[in-house]
Structures are given as structure tokens and as C-alpha cells.
Amino acid sequence: MQKYDLIVIGGGIVGIATAYKWQLTNPNSRVVVLEKEGALARHQTGRNSGVIHSGIYYKPGSLKAKTCFDGYAQLVEFAKEHNVAHDICGKVIVATDESELPQIDAILQKGKENGLDGLKILGPDEIREVEPEVNGVKAIFVPQTGIIDYVDFTNKMAARITNIQKDSAILKGFNVVRIRNKPSGTTIVKSERGEFEAPIVIACGGLESDRLAKLDGVDAGMKIVPFRGDYYDLTPQGQHKVKNLIYPVPNPEFPFLGVHFTRMIHGGVECGPNAVFSFKREGYDKTSFSIKDSFDALTYGGTWKLFKTHWKHGMGEYERAFSKAKFLQALQKLIPGLTDSDITPARAGVRAQALSNDGKLVDDFVIQKGNGAIHVLNAPSPAATASLAIADEILNRIGTNYNE
Hints:
There is one protein chain. It is built from eleven helices and 22 strands. It folds into two domains: about 1-45 and about 150-220 and about 365-395, FAD/NAD(P)-binding domain; about 85-150 and about 225-355, D-Amino Acid Oxidase, subunit A, domain 2 (D-Amino Acid Oxidase, Chain A, domain 2, 2-Layer Sandwich). It is globular, with a radius of gyration of 21 Å. About 35% of the residues lie in helices and about 25% in strands. It has about 400 residues and is an alpha/beta fold.
């Protein structure tokens, strides 16, 4: 039995940020992070589009809005101090049809309420000055958006933890199988490679967050239902058609953002993702399948309610998953001059999205206390941007006051 002052389960960006923030203000305490993979940031953190989000889309006053705004500033400060590659390049949110103009106005209002500065409405000519290949009727320019290497960001936070306290540890290949609260008030966390004990345990399990909560006797009233997002890369001949970041106006009837264009921090341009139900939580291929994960999702009533509500949109997403031509059509809404030879299939990611019993995607971040641990139950995008502020929220909830 190895004893620590804090156990964090999960070596993605939220787990590492939480351990890092704790260690900063408790430099003499011993922290251990238990990560089941052989490296940090293997799933959501390392497979997202690398965007530093501004917080413009989120409901004012929500945990997403508050932590994204605060987390943005902390993220950029850390990146500058520790030489993490990043670029605050701004983005455009483009209406391609007059019917989308009310949404543009609503998004602009949310951005202002959430504290963003420098938002600017662009007309067709101004859009082309920013992104010459985009054909839009109106757009919002969002200066407080950028790109970053989230894997490097995560690893540099992890290195700081063990630099501050040599007796802290980041353990990889430690899959947690049991969480047990002792009468004394401490919690035992059992992994496949050993047991650990601490008075405070924080679970940041991403795609496995609901299962970790279940180990702790938590009935979360929600389940992680995975959605895979497929990406294309622009070929060298097509890369000049995108300068920075180009986003669509979200469809208010569909709970996902829609395909967009992202200049990547280490070169190249990525376009996507779509959003399709995944038959495996950590399945990054179109044919990935897990009996356990599929049974878990398809025996959950909320999944079928979601399918019933959004089946038409869902079928369109599946068409794009298996048809390059359909994917290209979606991209051409933003850049009409894009051609088949401009795009090539690339990687995929899986979104750890919590779904409630009524078939609705859980819109906000969810942090809940269990019997032996605090659980981050829902932390999809913009959790990477918000990670340091999410860590603050967690530590405040457990009564840890600290100043950097």
C-alpha cells in the first residue's frame, strides 16, 4: 500500500492540471497520478483539434463559460512561461446563408456577456480580407482564439509536478479497478499493478469517467456515450485556402458544432470533424468495435431517445463518415472552391460526451462528489482550454484555498 496526500485518476489534461494546481500550493505534499495508458494525453487531450477556445458559444453563467474564459488566460500564461508552442491567431464564425443571421447575433451577444473583447462583425468583403477563399454573408471575428500543442502542454505540467516535489509520481500503465472508502475517511484506489491510499481522490477519467464513478458507488444519472469525429487534412495544394480558423454557425437543432477548418500549430490544416456514434469508447477507426462499449451504450434508454430526436442529422453524419464526396460537400459550404484533390483522410477522435436519461447531451461540465472521490463526469470541449480553471473549481470544492 502506497500512501499519498492526493491521488488523481487520469493523465489527460484535466487530471494533470488538477494535480499540478494542487502541487503548486501544497509543495510539501505527495501527489500521485494514475494513468492507464503508457503515455499521458492519449485520448481526448491528444486527439482534439488543438484549438484554444474563447468561450463565445457557451451559456453565460455556466461552468463552461466561466472556466473557459478564466482557463484561456491561465493557459496562455503557462504556454508563454514554459515555451509551449501556441499562436493566438483568431477565428471567423461564418454565416453562409441569410437564415443563419439570427444565430450570428445570438452568438455575438453570448460572447459579450462572457467577457470577450474585440469581437467584430464582418461583411462579405471583410470576410475575404481575413479568409480570401470563404464565401459568407456575415461573420464574427473572434480575436481571443488560437492553436496550441495540448500534448506538450500536458507533459510540461506533469514535469512541473515532480520538479516541485520529488516524492510525487506520474505513473503510467496503472489501470484503476476499484475505489473503496475506509471508515477512517481515507480512500483506497486499487489498480492492476498496486494499491494506493490518500485522504483525497479526484477522478478525471474522460471516456471512462462514468465507470470510475460506478466503482465509487455513484449513480450519476448520466452515461458516457462516445461520438467519433473523423478529420481530413488539406493537401499541400489546398493549404493556401485557409489562413487560420474558419467555423460555421452551429445548427441549433443539432447538438454538435459542424465541420470547420483549423490551422495546426506544427503545420498543415485540418478539417472536420463529423460526429457519429462510436461502437467503441476508444475506437479511432470507422470499424472499431467493442462488445462491452456497444452493449453499455445501446442498452441505455437515453441513447435511443437521442437517436429518435436526431436520426436525420445522424444519418447525414454517417454518410460523411464513409463518403469523401459528402464530407467535401459539407466543407464547400464554407469554402466553395475546395476540390476533391484538396483533402485527404486523416485521424479521428472520440468525444467523451455524457448523455442524460432523457436523451439530451449534458451541456455543461459536471463535477460530483462520490463516496471516496470527486468525479469529473462530463468534460468535453472546451475542457482542454478550461483545464486549469476546472482544476481551480475542483480544489475550491474540496476546500483547498491557494494562490499561485
